[in-house]
Amino acid sequence: MSTGFGHYGVSIMMKGGALAAVGLACLLCLGVLPRVALGQGTTTDSEQAQSTLQPGASKADIAAGRRIYERGLLATGEPLRGTVVGDVMLEGAQVQCASCHRRSGFGTSEGGAYVAPIVAPWLFGAKTPDRADLFRKLYQEVQPNRMKSKVRSLQVRTAYTDATLATALRTGRDNTGRVLDPLMPRYRLDDTSMAQLIAYLHTLGQGSDPGVDDEAIHFATVIAGDVDPADRQAMMEVMEAFFRRKNAEIEAELQRPGHSPYHRDDFYRALRRWVLHVWELDGLPSGWSDQLEASYRQQPVFALISGLGEGTWKPVHELCERRRVPCLFPNTEQPVTEVGDYSLYLSPGWRVEGAALARHLSSAPPSQIVEVYRDQDSARLLSQALHDELAPAQQARIESRVVGVDPSLTESFWADLLRRGVSTTLVLWLPEVDLEPLSRVKGVESISEIYLSYRLLGNTVPNVPSQLAEKVYLTYPYALPGQEVPRIHRVRAWLRSRRLPANHERLRLNTYFALSIADHALVHLVESFSRDYFIEGVEHEAENSLNPGVFPHLSLGPGQRFASKGSWVVRVSNDGIEPLSEWIVP
Amino acid sequence: MWRFIQSTNGIATRPGQSLGASSLLLCALLISTGLMPGTLRAEDADGQTSAGDEHTGHHVTHDPGSSPRFSRVVRSYRAPDVTLVDAAGDPTSLSAALRHNGPLLLQFIFTTCPAVCPVLSGTFAAAQPELPSDTRMVSISIDPEHDTPSRMREYAERFRAGPSWLFLTGRLEDVVTVQKAFDAYRGNKMRHEPLTFVRATQAAPWVRLDGFLSAEQLVAEVRRLTAP
């Protein structure tokens, strides 16, 4: 396999493992993409990047320091302790360095509090003003003016030594004698723990993470399993159009070094061409992990963006966690529910619908629930979530029938079910085709309500037979019709202007969201190409106005991994759907 | 009002120092022209200007000690009639939570908040044993979709919250309504501000403390408000 760059920076890894270069690396050939000077812009593995050991520090020391930094735990098992605001003692996770300075060490901003980087080049190098960094803080951080006044104040200082840093950490007085912010804990650290923490700080933020070189930043998107070709096309059209546009902008900037208007020259060193690799997984999921590893080894990527999966997403999730690669918002209904560090999802997928329905049913418990579902992943996950979330008393009242994937259910199946005395609530994790024979069965009027999954129905509102009118309800995890966010119009206009069809809109909008938030987060990095910092930027940005409107509300925070967290239960009426429940967040 | 105080920070005020005459004159002018609705009176402002220390991001106080600074204004807020959910998962009306005829302290927090909330809640926790025994504390999540009652319980345990410290979450739109009623809504939760609201009695106006307080400062505020 080889790597090829398209004219808009797209390379495609074909199923057979061959690589089809879409075009030539025109920018390089034409010499319009000069090499960008970047101090440490080399592609190295994280492990290699972290090999800059403090003299005398062992790997065990660094690991212990990392535990202090990220978990607030000393090697002795004692929690880290520190005092903030003069007299408030905090310990453990409340006072771990990563809480404020974040795992990346690049800091954050929150509520007017500016927490600056403590990565090794900043701590152990002299601090000098940087216009690009200042610009980012002043104009790209949505924070109150008090934060801006802080970052505007010109500060220079010499490099910390281990001794002056230890003093600062213990006493709150920096190496110039200034007193640090009251929010900065004054740590109670013994000499051994202090040495371990400082040993770890020496490794933090050294160099770029893999997937970035002096000219390009590499991304991949994963297409896993037997996906609908039309879905694949819809997603890829958006991705290619976005990459094309992004690289055109970058090319325009790079063509005028020293002449860019306004502040842009200050960001010149941070510009990288975006290169997209498409990793298509074939065969059984058991083989996907090897395929992903092979693709990653061939070309490490900085992040995975969007993606499309039919069935399990676990092998991709595991790659992201194993290789510490940010994986942003794939189009999958089967995200891994265990919270990972690097895998961010649009929603919890099937599970959120089942759990939301359980919550809804708990509000007015039916006397009996009969659940019917087909023996397939999607329906099993819906059912499992329903059972997990139901109160114990209700779990005793639910009867589940599992049916094979084929053929469709017959009238006699439903007649048999109704003869068993079903008179209350049906939960049917089934496709629409199974409803029609149900409507013809004698005694159907005894059914009080039927719950279905909108997504399992193929994202369509079913045609409800007249016998079942007013009885059909759906779990519905999307924004309600007519409750569109303003940004949807802008994104639709963007898609239209690229001459992309209006079909598969949710898929296109979600893909656009993944790309646009990656773009925003990348700008915040300037040239600090840290994957952790990138993820932290995404967490920070998700709640801003980038939501293109598939889901009613998108939000993340430190450690949160599902941007949309709930589902409606809606009533099917002649006019479409209307909410029966509130937005339920299980 | 507090924004005005911040904007006058070019003339730094010290803790406990009242605003200068020119500032008061401007305050009076603004009040007389109706530009400051809802402001009852301004007390002292502790928001000194400070030089930012970029190398670690910790700004420098003029006071060489580590005491934090905050501003204080007295405001009148009308709590909306919404039903929230307590840490046990039970519906609780906000008015019931705030219906307390002793000192009442209110903060907006969220459980995954990296920098601000651990300190805000830590101050509550440290002040807890020193506050008058009839004090009620209320922490309301501004990230209710993530902060389920069980997460609020874990958070409460982390800060060893006593029985007089309530933790509330609820529907996102209700929580936004509450924040707006207290002029605390900033759109994105990462923009939230370090605010503590204190009320001496049910009939008293709210004191809005903007910034970080030490436990000692918070206790002093409450004692000052409740002093006979």
Q: Explain this structure to me?
A:
The complex is a heterodimer of chains A (586) and B (228). Chain A has 20 helices and 20 strands. Chain A is α/β, with parallel strands linked by helices and 586 residues long. Chain A folds into three domains: 51-201, no CATH class; 216-349 and 484-541, Rossmann fold, CATH 3.40.50.2300; 350-476 and 568-579, Rossmann fold (3-Layer(aba) Sandwich). The model of chain A is unreliable at 1-52 (pLDDT under 50). In chain B, helix 4 packs across helix 7. Chain B contains seven helices and nine strands; from the N terminus they run H-H-E-E-E-E-H-E-H-E-H-E-H-E-E-H. Chain B is globular, with a radius of gyration of 18 Å. The two termini of chain B are 27 Å apart. Chain B folds into two domains: 2-70, no CATH class; 83-226, Glutaredoxin. Mean pLDDT of chain B is 78; it is low at 1-64. Classes of the chains: A alpha/beta (586), B alpha+beta (228). Chains A and B meet through strand 4, strand 5, strand 6 and helix 7 of A and helix 4 and helix 7 of B.
Order of helices and strands of chain B: HHEEEEHEHEHEHEEH
CATH level-1 class of the largest domain in chain A: Alpha Beta
What count of helical segments of chain B does DSSP give?
Answer: 7
Question: CATH superfamily membership of the largest domain in chain A, which one?
Answer: Response regulator
Class derived from helix and strand content of chain B: alpha+beta
Q: What's the multimeric state?
A: heterodimer
Distance between the termini of chain B: 27 Å
Given as residue ranges, the uncertain stretches of chain A (5+ residues, pLDDT < 50) are: 1-52
Q: What is the number of E strands of chain A?
A: 20
What is the strand arrangement across the widest sheet of chain B? 1-2-9-8-5-6-7-3-4
Shape of chain A: globular
Largest interface by Cβ-Cβ < 8 Å: A-B, 66 and 56 residues
Mean pLDDT of chain B: 78
Helix percent band of chain A: 25-40%
